[in-house]
Every structure is written in C-alpha cells, then in structure tokens.
Amino acid sequence: MAQLKLVQPRPWRGERGLEPVLGEWLAGERVRPCFAAERDYEPSEARTAPLPASLHPSIARALASRGIDALYTHQGAAFELASRGRSFVVATPTASGKSLCFHLPVLDAMLRDPDARALYLFPTKALARDQEASVRELMTEAGGGIAIVTYDGDTPGDARRAAREKSHVIVTNPDMLHAGVLPHHTSWARMFQALRFVVVDELHTYRGVFGSHVANVIRRLMRVAAFHGSNPLLIGATATIGNPREHAARLFGKREDEVELVGESGAPRGARKFFFYNPPVVNEELGIRASYVKQTVSLAADLVRARVPTIVFGPSRNSVEMMLRYLREKVARDKIEPSKIMAYRGGYLPEQRRDIERRLRSGDILCVVATNALELGIDVGALDAVVCASYPGSVAAMWQRFGRAGRRGALSICVLVACSAPLDQFLAREPEYLLSANVEEARIDADNVEVLVQHLKCAAFELPFRRGESFGSVGAGETGEALDFLASHRVLHESGGNYHWATDAYPANAVSLRSVGWDNVVIIDVEHDKVLGELDWPAAHTMLHEQAIYQHDGETWQVERFDYENHKAYVRKVEPDYFTTALTHKKVSILEVEAESSPLVTAWGDVSVVEKVVGYKKVKFNTHENTGYGDVHLPAMQMHTTSFWLRLGDDTRHVAPPAQRIDGLRGLGIALETVATFRLMCDPRDLGMTLDDGREEIHGQPTMFLYEHVPGGSGLAERIFSLREELFARALRLVTSCACAAGCPACVGPGESGERKRVAAELLRLLASSS
Fold first, then answer.
1. Which among 64, 83, 194 has a CA at the least distance from the CA of 141?
2. What is the pTM of this model?
3. How far apart are CA 219 and CA 163, in angstroms?
4. Three-state SS for 145?
5. Half-sphere exposure of 159 (CA within 13 A, CB side)
6. Cis peptide, bond prior to residue 309, ω within 30 of zero
7. Which residues, in sequence order, are CB contacts of 181 under 8 Å at separation 6+?
8. 125 in helix, strand or coil?
9. Looking at the DSSP assignment, which residues form a beta bridge with residue 198?
10. 322-381: pLDDT as tens digits
11. Torsion angle of C-alpha atoms 726, 728, 734, 737, degrees rounded to 10
C-alpha cells in the first residue's frame, strides 16, 4: 500500500472558472496522485419534437414566452400518452425536464375543463414547495385562473379551507394524504369527484417498507376516488432505476402492461468529468487515510475560491455542519462572505429552508453543503461541480447526486471522495465495479401482511368494505380473510355483507408510513426564547443529550437541558474548540428463529435491538483529537426487526484463542456486511452489524448479527440467509485479495491483536467448506 505525502495546498492564484481548478488538480502533486479513477462523459445534443397540435394555445404562448418552441422527445411522448388516457412513468436523468411531462397534460386538461382537479404527490415538503412554485409560474403565464395550493403540515388553516374548496391542483406528500386527506375525504368531495390526474414524483424514493406503505395509500386513494365517481390517470416520474415500469406498476396497483414507460431522454447534456478521489495514506501499518471530511473540504475550497457554483454532499447532519464550518474558515481569507456558503439538511426550520432554496435558484449562494435532502429534484439553479463525501450507498443515488451539476450544458465535474469504510475502499480498488454497475432496482412488497392489515383498517375507517370486494391487486378472497380476521378481533363489524369500522380509534394516526415513531424534538434557544430547529426522535438521542454540542448553520450550541418527556431541547450559543460524538451500546436478542442451518450455525429470524446512548466523546475541531468524555443518562430505544446471525461453535475453537476468535468474527462481520450491501443492492444504512461475545447470548457462544435498521424488517435478512454460501465466498475473496498484512479499513478493519484478518479468513474457509 503506497504511502502518500500530505501536500499543503498553495495559495490560489486567482483564476476563476472550472478549467483553472482542473489544471491545478491534474498538474500538481496534491490531488492527482489520489485519483483512483477518472472518466470523461461526452456531451449529447438535444432531440426535439414539435409542440403537439392538440396543446392548448395558451400553453403554447406561455412556452413561447420562455423561448420554448419545441419539446424534448420524452416530453412529447408523455403528452401523447396522457392524451390517450394511458398511465405512464417517465424515467430520465436529473435535469432532463421531467416536470413538463406532467405539468403540460394537467394544465391542458384544466384549461379545457375548469372543474378538473389534480393531485401531486412528492416525498418531501421541500420538493412539494419547489414544484408548487414551478407549476404556479407556468399556470400564471398560461392564464385561466387555475389555483394551486400546497397542503402539508405547514399550511395555515385558511389556506387549507381554500385547498379543499377552490384549488385545482393540490400539492402534498404521502404522509399528509394518508392522515390528513383520505380519512376526511367527505370534506374533499369536490376534488375527488373531478380528480383527473394523480402525479407521483420521485418514484425511486418509494422503496422498501416506505414504498410498501405508499402503495397501500394509493390503493386507498383510488378506492375513495371511485366512491366519488372518478378514475384518475396515474403518472409517475423517477430518476434512473433498474425497473421503472415494474416499480411504477406495483406502486400504482396495476399490471405492468397497463403502465407505459418513457425512458429515452431527449434533453441535451454537457460534457462531464468524473473523479474518484481516495485520500492519501497517513498510517501505512494500519491502512489509515487522511480524513475524508477534511479532504472533501479542501477540494470544495478550490472550487469556491475559483467561484465555481458547487454542491457538496455529506453523509450525515453532523458531517454537513463540520464541512460548512471548515469550508467557511478556509475561504475567509479570499474575502468570500460566509453567507455565500450555506448548509441544507433536515432539522432546519421551514422558512430557513425556503430561503436557502430561493437563494440557490437566484444564484446568490456560491456553494451549498447538503445531506441527501437535496438529492431529489429541488431546483438548485445552475451548478458546475458536485463533490460527494463518501459513497452514498447506491449507484442510483450517486448518479442522482451527480446529476445536480451541468444544467447549463457547459462542462461540469463530479468528485466522489472515498471514506475509510470497507465499502468505499473496495470501490476505490475496483472503480470499474462502480462505473459499470447496473443501477439498482426498487423493491416493494405492498402485500406484506403487517403493512396490508394496517391500511385495511384505515380504508375501512374511510369507507365500509363490501363482502367480495378486492383491495388494489389483493384478490377478493385474501381481502375477505383479512377483513374476517379484523372482525374477529372486533376492529370491524360485519353486517349484511358489509364490514364497518367498529372502534373509536383513528387508525391513520397509529400508522407511520416511514416507520419512525414519536414526534420531532424542538430545539429552543434559551437566550432569545425562540425555536432554532427540530430533529427526529432517534437522532435527538445522539445529538441533543445534555452537554452535547449541537451544530447549526456553522454555529455551535450546547444543550443545557433535554426535556425527554415533552420532546424539547434547550440550547445556548457557545464557542468551544470541540464537537461531541455520542457513544452507543447495542444489544440484539433473538425473539424467534425462522430458519437455521448447521454445523456452523447460521440463521435468520425476528430480533429485538436495544440501543442506548451511554456517553459522549469530545473531539477537537480541525485536528479531530479526543479531548475528553462524558456520561449520558437516557432511556434505551428498542426496535423489533429481522436479522441474520452466525454463531461460532466448539468446532472453531482450534482457529484461535477466544479473544482473537471474537476479534476475527468482528472482522468477518465487517466483510460480510460489505459484500451483502453490494449483492442485495441496498443502502449500507439499511443494515447494522453487532457482536455478542457469548457471555449472555445463545449457549455462551460468540454470535455475529447482521440486522435490518427498519422496524419489522424488509426481507434483507432472509435474502442474506438464502444467499449465505455465495456471500461467504465473496467475503473470503474480499479478505484474501486485500494487500494489507493484518487487516485494514478496506477489508476487515484494523484488528486489536493483529490477527483479525487471518482469523476472519480461516472462519470464512470453514463456513465455505461446511456449506
């Protein structure tokens, strides 16, 4: 493993634009040696089609005022399908003009029929607000007095009444539709009676458990619409995924031949350069590389100094805040105002996010540092560079992020900075695997019994079920069995062939589409007695415990009190030279074994995961040195999910002494998690790995758990079990092909004894031979 010298950046020479930055990187000793891969992507010309002859003249005039006298071919194909009453999904790259694919047919229908209505669904409130502005502008230019309202948790009461009574286009999200619209559909009778279109944008985000929930919400939506006498056309739009037509059909509850695919983009694309940057090695013995966070900041600073509009993606809220702080500090001497570099993440208040979005569109912000909140199709204006701190977890997400640059047709660059995680280091060694990999497929299971029963209860609350009625693609027989089950538990009451809701509870309130319980925690500035932001409940345990340093918009706040019962955190602005990182303890307990194999026991089943924040670590800014620890006293969080596990039996005692065997099992788990993520094409955050040393778990034997982070599981653990022989072989190849001597971040992680790699490989050989 080559050890590279950390070269300090020279003062920027003052040239502006992307070309000088590229010249500096490729000619100097600081950046070029760290490139694990480079790839050029050629520009493509636009392919257009004439404006459809049937397009309403007012829309044609509105497009002409924008300088548009023709449509891209995929936009024209979408309008033609909508004109024929065919449901379809548009699957083209970011910034290819997908919005017009649904705006045009919706607006055309409403100009011809003032009573027509449309419902737009977006996965986030930010994207909904962004698209509201886009379609409102087009509607205003076309005239006709068409009203559009965003209906979400931030909508004031008077606007909600207007939405129900007067709005032609309702823009909302699945959560609001599920809990705020469908249970009160009689108040929305005017909309449902004239509902012509249901538009579901960012289809690729509806996967796993969340997607399975949303598919059932759409089943309920179509059922309520039918009750009010309408049969809306379903239109989907997605970034590139491996199975857009199949996924859309499953989400819409239709057969695949009932959904058309518009998959060939006619939009132009500028030249693009891709770089895979692997930070230099700073400790050859342990395979430790320079901080990927600081290396990302260094590259971004070069771009910002040259006034290149840039977006930087970070893997977490804390990393985003750290990069914002470091980046502002780095470019301060270049007289770049801190307000020109902003962060964007969950937890900021709605008005702050709207202001950042507006300033991005206007070009007032030079660089934005964001979590995946900006991965979706929010209009961020014209950007020339994307720097991504660590692999985002999927090929689809990577290209979605990189698609945020190059909107003006000029040269753009995309830089992926590897972190020290095995997944990133594997890709750095094998970049072609990433660059030539197929885009992942989106998977849902709308008929999952636990999910289905919850939505049958919600649907029965909305409208009684008739005996013999089906629910979406669930046949009448299966639906009837589920309804009888609910009736036997007195949730429903069957009378005269109809099933009526029989309890006082409001079922939608008890069903979370995103499988996240509890309300957000409100963050309060005690000095000014005002709300600073908010965080989801699980994140609050690690970021808002007492004495934690909470970072917000490049500033630091210390948590003085965490009101656990009332979900409030009271913070005071401070200027420490450190930030805090929570220390957590996880324990997995087996609840039920679904399947098991031997002689080396591998199994999968239901488990309980208990996670408790037990302390925190103080880490100095810039140097990242540990400067102290503190205790945290918070209740544990518990989650029921599914897991794959591997137990070492007596027949492995010859491999190594007990302590080394446990350390080797940990390394095996790291390698297995890496290859499982690739094989299952899932996000690394979907899986967690922990080890039990055998003191409390099964028969006193060390056990490695690879569990799902989603409550209830989504099928990953079962697939790991069924593919275990292949995964063990892949893990063994990963470990033995690594050039390190005793274990490094690229394979099994640095071990405590220096024997981790050898022991992990020996255990994997035993597993392979016993399969």
1. 64
2. 0.79
3. 22
4. coil
5. 12
6. no
7. 151, 172, 188
8. helix
9. 119, 234
10. 999 999 999 998 889 999 999 988 778 878 888 888 888 888 999 999 988 776 656 666
11. -100
CA–CA gap between residue 326 and residue 315 (Å, rounded): 16
pLDDT for 408-423, tens place per residue?
Answer: 668 899 999 999 887 8
How far apart CA 717 and CA 720 sit, in angstroms, is 5
Contacts of 522 (CB under 8 A, 6+ apart): 531, 534, 567, 568, 569
pLDDT band at 19; cut points 50, 70, 90: very high
Strand partners, 603: 596, 645
CA distance to 113, 396, 560, per residue, from 242 (Å): 37, 9, 48
Residue 413 has, within 13 A of its CA and on its CB side, a CA count of: 24
> In degrees to the nearest 10, what's the CA dihedral of 80, 85, 89, 90?
20
Q: What is the torsional sign of CA 75, 81, 82, 86? A: negative
Question: Which residues lie across from 525 on neighbouring strands?
Answer: 530, 571
Which residues, including other chains, have CB under 8 Å from residue 128's CB and lie 6 or more apart? 120, 122, 150, 152, 171, 172, 173
Q: Which residues touch 84 (CB under 8 Å, ≥6 apart)?
A: none
pLDDT digits (tens, 9 = 90+) for 270-280: 899 999 999 99
- Check if the beta carbon of residue 111 is closer than 8 Å to that of residue 56: yes
Amino acid (one-letter) located at 426: F
How far apart CA 617 and CA 602 sit, in angstroms, is 35
| Amino acid letter, 387 | V
Contacts of residue 725, defined as CB under 8 A and 6 or more positions apart, other chains included, come to 768, 771
Which residue type is seen at 365? Answer: I
Ramachandran region, residue 335 (left: φ > 0; alpha: ψ -120 to 50; beta: rest): left
3-state helix, strand, coil in the chain (%, to 5): 40, 25, 35
Calpha distance 735→761 (Å, rounded): 7
Q: Distance between CA 689 and CA 49 in Å, rounded?
A: 52
Q: How large is the angle between the packed helices 449-462 and 476-488, nearest 10 degrees?
A: 80
DSSP state letter for 376 = S
- Please provide the DSSP assignment of 204-218 as one string: GG--HHHHHHHHHHH
User: What is the number of residues in the chain?
Assistant: 771
- Structural tokens at position 710: 């989603």
